[in-house]
Design brief:
single chain; 245 residues; alpha+beta; 4-stranded antiparallel beta sheet; 5 helices; 14 strands; globular; EC 2.3.2.29; N-end_Aminoacyl_Trfase_C; arginyl-tRNA--protein transferase activity; Aspartate/glutamate leucyltransferase; acyltransferase
Length: 245
């Protein structure tokens, strides 16, 4: 996870703001995004520092919301040592014990893309990632850098889920998970299981946190994040305990 390349201090980096655009999560609202200069390489040291300030990665870009008058997007993370799975989560771990996990570099694989294509068309046909394409997938989830990894979940050799993660010096950032939309897998709750398995991976590697990206109180699609307790949120530059609702 380390890099020998010199890292510029965060204060010397350049950032850009997008023009206001429709918010992907809250209707009738506009969003503005703060991006690290695309000419800057998102090396390990820079990424580690910016992730503590609420930045996320999408492809080669590091970003965070920067919306005037709106603070709905809250960065959240799970303190690994304090996490205790609920009864339901323990059942899911047992239910998915027959899955085999493989860790891969975040490179393009046609098998991965075919699963992603079916997932987006089935589960997110009303979202801004529809329709999926090879170019969109490559831009979003592939990156030739040691910290960018893909977790494969297989059942008797069949690919059933893929999680994109980043290995940080202070945790694992959960980027995105897609899975087989076949109703036969619904009881496995593969999205939740992927987070549970990422927590175990962080514990095995002595990494203290799993970053879940942004949580929006008003967005029902993000309610699942509250099921992982305890949860911490970023308040300015300080991470604080989020009280369960």
């Amino acid at each position: 996870m380390s890099s020998n390349a010199p890292q510029r201090p965060v204060r010397d980096l350049r950032f850009f703001l997008t023009i206001p655009h429709p918010c992907s999560y809250l209707k009738e609202r506009e969003a503005t995004t703060l991006f690290l200069d695309p000419q800057e390489s998102p090396g390990q040291g820079v990424y580690d520092a910016l992730s503590l300030l609420g930045f996320r990665r999408s492809g080669r870009h590091l970003y965070r919301p920067h919306c005037e008058g709106c603070h709905a997007c809250i960065s959240v993370r799970i303190p690994v040592a304090e996490f205790r799975p609920s009864r339901t989560q323990r059942k899911l771990m047992h239910r998915n014990a027959d899955l085999t996990l493989f860790e891969r570099p975040a490179r393009f694989h046609e098998e991965h893309y075919q699963l992603y294509d079916r997932y987006i068309r089935t589960r997110h046909a009303d979202g801004d990632m529809y329709p999926p394409s090879h170019e969109q997938y490559r831009t979003f989830l592939t990156l030739d850098h040691p910290y960018a990894r893909l977790l494969e979940f297989r059942l008797d050799g069949r690919l059933v889920a893929v999680s994109a993660i980043d290995l940080l010096s202070h945790g694992i950032s959960a980027i995105y998970t897609f899975f087989d939309p076949d109703p036969a897998f619904d009881r496995r709750s593969l999205g939740t299981y992927a987070v549970l398995r990422t927590l175990r991976l962080a514990e095995e590697r002595a990494l203290p946190h799993v970053y879940l990206g942004y949580w929006i109180r008003e967005c029902r699609k993000m309610n699942y994040k509250q099921a992982f307790q305890p949860l911490e949120y970023l308040d300015g530059r300080t991470w604080r305990r989020l009280i369960a609702l």
